[in-house]
Write a structure and sequence with these properties.
718 residues; Maltoporin, Chain A; 5-stranded mixed sheet
C-alpha cells in the first residue's frame, strides 16, 4: 500500500527587491558558476579538470528528504543507499572500498577539512538543507587536497538569500517526517527586533539551521532518526579581513537490515537478514548504528593587498559510534583536530596584465586520538570485551601550485604536494600490548594541466598522480583483526576535455575523457557474519567518458528562469582488473564490481508564472557485477521522478512585511521498479542485495518571512 506524503516546508524565497521567487530558481548558467576547486575563485568554464557542480537550484528537482537523487545527476558520481541513513558515495568506482560512508575521497565544508585524519567522511550526518553549492572534483586531479584517488568534494552552506525566518515540516511514505527551521540574522540583527520591516540589504552573516527527521523504512528493521543543528557566522575583523565560524551537531541512529541472497531477495525483498547457520538475524541482534558528531571550525581570510591573500583555518571534532551487529558490538570514540593554511599571491607579468602568475602555497595537518572497543553482542547489548584498541592517525600535507595565465587565452597549471600519513595502533586488551605502526612511504603528488580557449570553447588536458592510504576502518575493520599487510593504492590519471556554450548561448556542454591506472587497489570483502575486511587487489585499468549537456529556452526577462530547460548526464566507465590473483583464483581482466558500464540521467525543467515549476527526471543504470569473479550481477533499472511547485498565497503584516506560502508535490520511482541500490560487494554467501524504496509520493507547503529592502515598506511580486 502506497502512503501519501504530506509535506509542510518553509524555504528560501526571492532576493530583496526581486519578484518573490525561490533563490534557487533564479537563472544561473553553468559557465558562469564560480568554483573554488583550485584555491582561486574562477569560472567553471576555465577549470582545467573534470569538475561537476550541484548548484543551489539543482536540489529543487528532487525530494528534500535525501541527497541521493541530486548527487546521482552528476556524471561519474554514484551515491547509494543500503537503507535509510546508510549511504555510500563513489566517484569513478571508489565504491570498491566503501562498505558504507565515504572512503578514498577528501571532503571540505566551508573551506574546512571534514574528512577525518583516519580517512573516513561521515557524510550521512548532513541534511540536504546543509548544502548549497557542491563541487565534485573527480579523480586525483588536484594536488591541493591531499591523499584520495577517488576525488575531492567541496561543499558549502546555502546562501542566506532573502529569508529571515523559515520553518519546514515534511511527512511521507514509509513513515517519513521531517521538521526544519532556518533563521538568518542581518548584521544589525542582534540589536534590532528581527521582525523589523527595514532590514538591511545583503546576505545575513548569521545563519542557523536545524532539522529533525524520522523514517519508518521500506524494509523490515530499517527505521532511522536524525537530528542536525548548524550555525554559520561571519564577522568583519578589518577592512580587508573576515572571520567565519562553523558549528555542526549531528545525532543519527538507524537500523541495519543486512544484505540478502538472491533467493531471499526474490522471495521477500523487504525482509531483513534472516538467521543462517551460527549467525542470528539482524532483528535478533538489534543491528543498528548510533552516530553522534560535533564539529567546530574557524576560518580567517585576510587580503592585505590586491595581490596577496592569506587563508587560515582550524577545527576540532568528535564522533561517537555505537554499532551492535551480527558479529559483535562495537563502540568508537574518534576525537580529532586539524589546521589548514593557504597563501596566495598574484604577480602581473606585463603591463597590460594579459599575463599573470597566480601562486598558492600552504599545508594541512590533522591528528586523531581514537578508542575502539569491541564486545560480544547479547541481543543488542554489549557483552564481554573482545578487543580494546587505541589509534593515533595523523595526516600531513604540504602543497604548492602555480597558474600561469598567458596571452592568446592559454593557461598552464603546475602543482605539487608532499603527503605524509601515519597510523599507530595499540591493542591494550592483549598482554603484552600489541603495537603496530603503518609503514606507508611519504608520497609526492604532481599535477600538470594546460587549457586553451577558442571562442566559446575551453579545451584542457591534464596528467596527475594520486595515492590513497588505507583508512583506520580498513586497517581495523569490523572483523576486529588488525590488517598489518594492507598497503596504500596509487596511480597516474590522464584526462582530456572540452566545455563551452554554443548555439546563441542556449546549449552548454561539458565532455571529459580519462584513463587511470591504479596499483594495489584496495577492495572490500565480507565474511560469513557480514563483517568487512579489505585486500590489495593488484592493478586496475579505468577508462571512461563523462558528459553533461543542457539546453535552455531564451528568457523573456533577465531576472527570470528559462521557461524550458532540458539536461542530460551520461557516464561510460570501462573498468577492469589489470593483474589480480587471489590464491588459486585469477581475476585478471575481469570487470570491477560495483561499477555500472553506462549511466544516463536526464530531465526537463518547466518554469511558469507565480514561481511555478515542474521537474521530470529519468535515470537508467546498466547491470553491474557484484563480485570479483564476475559470477553475480545486479540487474539494470529505470527510475522516473517528478516534482512540481507553485506559490499559493501571499499576505502582508502591518508595515508591508510579506508572508509567503508555496505548494510542492512530487513522486519518486514512478515505475515502482524493484532494484538494489546499495549492493554489498564481494559479500560472503552471495548476500549482495539491499532493496531500495518503491513508488512513493510527497506533497507540501513552503512558507517564508523574507527581508525587505532598507527603507522600503513593501515588496514586489508577480
Amino acid at each position: 500500500m502506497i502512503e501519501l506524503k504530506i509535506v509542510l516546508a518553509f524555504a528560501t524565497m526571492a532576493n530583496p527587491g526581486q519578484p518573490l521567487l525561490s533563490d534557487t530558481t533564479l537563472p544561473q548558467s553553468m559557465d558562469s558558476v564560480v568554483v573554488t576547486a583550485f584555491a582561486n575563485r574562477s569560472s567553471l568554464k576555465d577549470a582545467a579538470a573534470s569538475l561537476s557542480v550541484l548548484k543551489e537550484r539543482d536540489w529543487q528537482r528532487f525530494s528534500p528528504a535525501s541527497a541521493v537523487g541530486a548527487v546521482n545527476s552528476l556524471p561519474g558520481v554514484r551515491m547509494e543507499e543500503r537503507s535509510p541513513g546508510s549511504y555510500r558515495l563513489a566517484i569513478r568506482g571508489s565504491s570498491l572500498r566503501s562498505p558504507f560512508g565515504v572512503r578514498n575521497i577528501r571532503m571540505y565544508y566551508e573551506g574546512l577539512p571534514f574528512t577525518d585524519p583516519g580517512g573516513n567522511t561521515y557524510l550521512n550526518q548532513f541534511a540536504v538543507g546543509n548544502f548549497g553549492q557542491l563541487e565534485v572534483l573527480k579523480g586525483p586531479g588536484n594536488s591541493l587536497y591531499g591523499a584520495g584517488t577517488g576525488g575531492t568534494i567541496l561543499a558549502g552552506t546555502p546562501s542566506a538569500g532573502a529569508d529571515q525566518l523559515s520553518l519546514q515540516y515534511m511527512a511521507g511514505s514509509y513513515g517519513l517526517h521531517q521538521l526544519e527551521a532556518k533563521f538568518n540574522l542581518p548584521a544589525t540583527g542582534f540589536r534590532k527586533p528581527f521582525l523589523q520591516a527595514n532590514a538591511p540589504e545583503g546576505p545575513a552573516p548569521h545563519q542557523f539551521y536545524a532539522q529533525h527527521q524520522v523514517y519508518g523504512g521500506y524494509r523490515n528493521h530499517s527505521e532511522m532518526k536524525r537530528d542536525m543543528f548548524s550555525y554559520l557566522g561571519h564577522w568583519k575583523t578589518g577592512e580587508r579581513s573576515t572571520l567565519s565560524l562553523v558549528q555542526l551537531v549531528g545525532d543519527l541512529w538507524y537500523q541495519t537490515p543486512g544484505g540478502l541472497t538472491l533467493a531471499e531477495y526474490q522471495k521477500d525483498p523487504r525482509q531483513s537478514r534472516p538467521a543462517a547457520g551460527p549467525n542470528p538475524s539482524a532483528e535478533a541482534t538489534r543491528a543498528a548504528i548510533s552516530q553522534r558528531t560535533i564539529y567546530s571550525g574557524l576560518r580567517h581570510e585576510w587580503k592585505p593587498t590586491e595581490r596577496i591573500r592569506l587563508d587560515i583555518a582550524a577545527y576540532g571534532a568528535k564522533t561517537n559510534v555505537t554499532n551492535p551487529a551480527i558479529r559483535n558490538y562495537e563502540k568508537r570514540s574518534e576525537p580529532h583536530y586539524g589546521t589548514r593554511l593557504n597563501f596566495a599571491y598574484t604577480l602581473p607579468l606585463n603591463t597590460s596584465r594579459s599575463a599573470n602568475l597566480r601562486l598558492n602555497a600552504g599545508g594541512e595537518w590533522q591528528q586523531g586520538h581514537y578508542r575502539i572497543s569491541v564486545y560480544g553482542n547479547n541481543a543488542g547489548e554489549p557483552g564481554s570485551l573482545q578487543t580494546d584498541d587505541r589509534l593515533r592517525p595523523r595526516t600531513a600535507l604540504l602543497f604548492t601550485q602555480g597558474i600561469l595565465d598567458l596571452p592568446m587565452d592559454w593557461q598552464f597549471t603546475a602543482g605539487l604536494s608532499y603527503n605524509a600519513n601515519k597510523v599507530q595502533i595499540r591493542r591494550i586488551s592483549e598482554q603484552p600490548v600489541f603495537e603496530f605502526t603503518s609503514n606507508y612511504r611519504n608520497e609526492w603528488m604532481p599535477r600538470l594541466a594546460l587549457t586553451k580557449k577558442l571562442g566559446p570553447l575551453t579545451f584542457y588536458g591534464m596528467i596527475a598522480k594520486g595515492f590513497s592510504p588505507p583508512t583506520t576502518s580498513e586497517l581495523l575493520p569490523s572483523t576486529s583483526v588488525i590488517n598489518t599487510s594492507l598497503q596504500a593504492e596509487g596511480g597516474w590519471n590522464q584526462e582530456l576535455g572540452v566545455r563551452g556554450r554554443v548555439l546563441r548561448q542556449q546549449l552548454y556542454f561539458d565532455l571529459d575523457f580519462f584513463y587511470f591506472r591504479l596499483k594495489d587497489a584496495i577492495v572490500q570483502r565480507r565474511d560469513a557474519s557480514g563483517a568487512d575486511y579489505f585486500d590489495n587487489a593488484g592493478g586496475t585499468r579505468q577508462k571512461g567518458m563523462e558528459a553533461y549537456i543542457s539546453w535552455s529556452m531564451r528568457r523573456k526577462r533577465p531576472n527570470r528562469p528559462a521557461p524550458l530547460q532540458a539536461w542530460a548526464s551520461y557516464t561510460l566507465h570501462h573498468f577492469k582488473y589489470d593483474d589480480f590473483k587471489q590464491g588459486t583464483n585469477d581475476f585478471s581482466g575481469n570487470f570491477l564490481p560495483g561499477v555500472a558500464r553506462q549511466t544516463l540521467v536526464t530531465g526537463i525543467d518547466l518554469n511558469g508564472p507565480a514561481a511555478t515549476s515542474l521537474h521530470l527526471t529519468y535515470q537508467y543504470v546498466d547491470p553491474m557485477w557484484l563480485n570479483d569473479a564476475n559470477t553475480a550481477r545486479a540487474a539494470q533499472y529505470h527510475l522516473l521522478a517528478a516534482r512540481i511547485a507553485t506559490q499559493l498565497w501571499q499576505t502582508r503584516f502591518k508595515g508591508g512585511r510579506p508572508f509567503l506560502v508555496r505548494f510542492f508535490a512530487g513522486a519518486d520511482n514512478l515505475f515502482n521498479t524493484q532494484y538494489s541500490l546499495g549492493n554489498d560487494i564481494n559479500a560472503f554467501g552471495g548476500r549482495y542485495y539491499n532493496l531500495s524504496a518503491g513508488r512513493n509520493f510527497y506533497v507540501g507547503l513552503q512558507c517564508a518571512l523574507p527581508y525587505l529592502r532598507a527603507g522600503n515598506g513593501s515588496a514586489s511580486a508577480d
